[in-house]
Amino acid sequence: MTKTTIDTRLNSAFQKNASRQNGWIALGILTIFIFSLGVASPMPQDELRKYVEKRIKRNDQALRIRSKLLGLQGAKFLAGSPLLQNVKTLVLFDTGLGDKGTQVLVESKILKNLISLNLGGNNIGDEGAKKIAHSSNLTNLEALDLYRNQIGNAGASALANSNNLKNLKTLFLNFNSIDDIGAGRLVHSTHLIKLEKLELTENLLSVKGKEICVKFDFGQRFKKLHQSGRLHNLESFYMGDLGVEALLETLLLKSLSELNLKENNLTDRAVLALANSPHLTNLKSLNLAGNQITDQGATALAESKTFKNLKTLNLNDNSIGDEGAKILAATNHLSQLEKLTLEENQIGPIGAKALAESTSLQNLAHPIFGFH
Q1: Does residue 179 sit in the same domain as residue 239?
Q2: pTM
Q3: Does residue 237 share a domain with residue 214?
């Protein structure tokens, strides 16, 4: 990942483009209008059968149909066709299924082997999403793409509460009508236990909703690092304060004895979160060098009971001044420290003197105090 601030990450991941969204909506309305006038009619069943046969002959485990009007009749044909009994990947993008066509499709037992399903651009609303969520034929599904539909919070909630999508790993819901409530239900779902990737770009999310999604993304990455035994070293991960909050929410830190958060664009907000966490009491080494921590962050560290077992604390290259140094020198909560480094801060002679004369930091072996 290239170095960037969390604000830039949020803007690049979720920047709203009203004209683009309105364009998609207008296109959907125009498409429906044209279909209703009969200008475009569903693909004849015989033509559809030949089309499917040709593609299944090449690969009987995948069928992709894009921008061809199938409608309800086409959905019924596919749902009843034995040609699809081995299909594991089904893409029906922009085929005019709607909620009814979606219902017919997902209720078909012929598609019980599906692993990947793409129903993007099909005017699917909450009812269609509910039918997907309630289908017992989709229990093997690992990837679901519902890009550019009309799904709102009700549909998102149904997906989040589904007992049939427990194997789902990726869920794409870009360009729908989901707001913070729906996003929160998806992110915190106790049913989508294998979900690793969730896309909600171009929905109705506020800054808070976007932050929820960013935290989810970070959380999944942290879980993988934990599984590989590398969670303790997050140097230059560029996570920002939101990343630290996501890290603490994973509850994966209880067994860690060391944590390296060097160069992560962290401010006092992240330090406050760390200091207030009940899951870091086993830490013996904490590296917060190369961030944007001020006296406020130093105060949070000094007043926290979380770090009572800490032996090494690296605060090099931050923005801590004399006040922060004096508070660190006076704390009784860091009495186990054996190494405290404060190079490249804003500590002058007054702060350095307080640290040198500290009666509570008696175990320091070779303290290094930074000057202006």
Answers
A1: no
A2: 0.81
A3: no
